[in-house]
Automatic annotation (TrEMBL):
Its cofactor is Mg(2+). It catalyses: a myo-inositol phosphate + H2O = myo-inositol + phosphate. PANTHER family: INOSITOL MONOPHOSPHATASE (PTHR20854), INOSITOL-1-MONOPHOSPHATASE-RELATED (PTHR20854:SF4). It comes from Saccharomonospora marina XMU15. The keyword Metal-binding applies. This is inositol-phosphate phosphatase. The keyword Metal-binding applies. InterPro entries: Inositol_monophosphatase-like, Inositol_monophosphatase_CS. Pfam families: Inositol_P. Its EC number is 3.1.3.25. GO terms for biological process: inositol metabolic process; phosphatidylinositol phosphate biosynthetic process; signal transduction. GO terms for molecular function: inositol monophosphate 1-phosphatase activity; metal ion binding. Mg(2+) binds at D100, D103, D226.
């Protein structure tokens, strides 16, 4: 089993790290203000095949604002977003930003207090800087390569107690519903006295592992912008990040075959549930 760690990644200029953290944190604060002021006002899904595939004015407004600020502060670094796509040359660029302006949009539209703003700076080794705003709790989670993870400026470090019974594992539905084998996975977790929760925000699900609230987060599929910011925080807090085969991403930004973010001591057991469920 290979652990994806930020430490062996390519070195990054300390000045860039500091400036990226500052700007990303400022954008997360802006997003917090907008999301809390506008949540629950209602919207209409634009996708006939997925009634919960929301796109709101807030999504577009926050992404445009993020792009304007990042383009001004970091000229030449492409910005890839959920709503407006990729900038020119994003795949070839040394650094690129990825943003999900509202992760958990269905919750946001309904006024359920569980959604996030996610922003990350990536290079070929993975997350360089990650920021996740948790607006309803007034928390901003931040991380930079080799500098650890913080919540509202306070350092956080994952404490691995090895405890399993009574723990929680987070997962998320796919765009069209439960992922293949999800029911079997939940049954196997329950047999081990572990609860499974579907909360509606991939970024916040991963953040719960970094914060010690959940023992693992399992995503059958995901978009880079959904998870990169939270993965940065989780890695810097001490979590293991693997694909469904138990392998790290190597030189890639993120695993490409599913995503498991977990307390290291329970990684093999959670992987065994996932692997067995996937074969059904």
């Amino acid at each position: 089993m290979t652990r994806l760690s930020s430490r062996p990644g390519c070195p990054v200029d300390p000045g860039l790290l500091s400036r990226a953290l500052e700007v990303a944190g400022r954008l997360a604060g802006d997003a917090t203000d907008v999301i809390t002021a506008t949540a629950g006002r209602g919207a209409r899904s634009e996708a006939e095949d997925s009634p919960f595939d929301w796109v709101t004015d807030t999504d577009r407004t926050l992404e445009r604002h993020t792009r304007r600020v990042l383009t001004s502060e970091f000229p030449g670094m492409p910005v890839v977003g959920q709503e407006l796509g990729a900038g020119v040359g994003a795949e070839e660029a040394k650094y690129r930003w990825v943003v999900d302006p509202v992760d958990g949009t269905a919750n946001y539209v309904a006024g359920v207090p569980w959604c996030a703003y996610s922003l990350a700076l990536l290079d070929s080794s993975g997350p360089v800087v990650g920021v996740v705003a948790d607006p309803y709790r007034g928390h901003i989670y931040t991380a930079a390569r080799g500098r650890g993870a913080r919540v509202n400026g306070r350092p956080v470090r994952l404490v691995d107690t090895g405890r399993r019974a009574g723990a929680l594992v987070c997962t998320e539905l796919t765009r069209t519903g439960p992922w293949p084998g999800m029911g079997e996975f939940i049954e196997r977790a329950a047999a081990a006295s572990v609860g499974v929760r579907v909360l509606g925000s991939a970024a916040l699900s991963i953040a719960q592992v970094a914060l010690g609230h959940a023992t693992a987060a399992v995503l059958h599929s995901y978009h880079e912008w959904d998870v990169a910011g939270a993965v940065a925080v989780a890695v810097e807090a001490g979590a293991a990040v693997l694909d469904r085969r138990g392998e790290g991403a190597g030189g890639c930004a993120l695993p490409t075959d599913g995503l498991l973010v977990t307390v290291p001591s329970v990684a093999e057991e959670v992987l065994s549930w996932w692997s067995a469920a996937s074969r059904r």
